[in-house]
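Colleagues,

Please find the record for the two-part complex below.
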Amino acid sequence: ETGVTQSPTHLIKTRGQQVTLRCSSQSGHNTVSWYQQALGQGPQFIFQYYREEENGRGNFPPRFSGLQFPNYSSELNVNALELDDSALYLCASSVRGVDTDTQYFGPGTRLTVL
Amino acid sequence: GENVEQHPSTLSVQEGDSAVIKCTYSDSASNYFPWYKQELGKGPQLIIDIRSNVGEKKDQRIAVTLNKTAKHFSLHITETQPEDSAVYFCAAPNYGQNFVFGPGTRLSVLP
């Protein structure tokens, strides 16, 4: 069974630029959630994708957007990068069910904005 | 929405001793509580979880207890080992399908 994978591992951008982060969900999982983890804090929910549509969003501005593809992989796009966007971006996959789903995290992408 | 508090923020124990981390949540409708372990430079790893229809769950040296009335749940690690050193996060569901995480507990197991 393949776990959640993310790419790239690390990324350095400058303020104002745009970035795309990628996530492949665990085999058999159909839902992908994205979280932002600032240094020394717990992960914060950005949004979730199910059936290629956004299914819930946290308190993040519209310059954070995403996609889910038919194979359930996903992208997180951030436009007009700000210094405060520097963080570890985590992708979690799960199987949509009746009860709250168990989420399994990938290793994350470390984004540094200069 | 859900609010999760976690204590202590740091915890140091001697190897072989037990460690306990406590979390409280605010939404009485929350029904599933996972615990994650995060090592330096890695993503959070699910170590144990509990649903609201049980009060305790155990997996080898790790156990989780849930008190729905008081809205708190705890992680218990017995016979701690140096490899247990990491940051531990509790979480509770927010409107069902995403999670609110606690601020984390940095556990250090001293040899």
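The longest strand of chain B covers residues 86-94.

Comments are welcome before we finalize the supplementary table.
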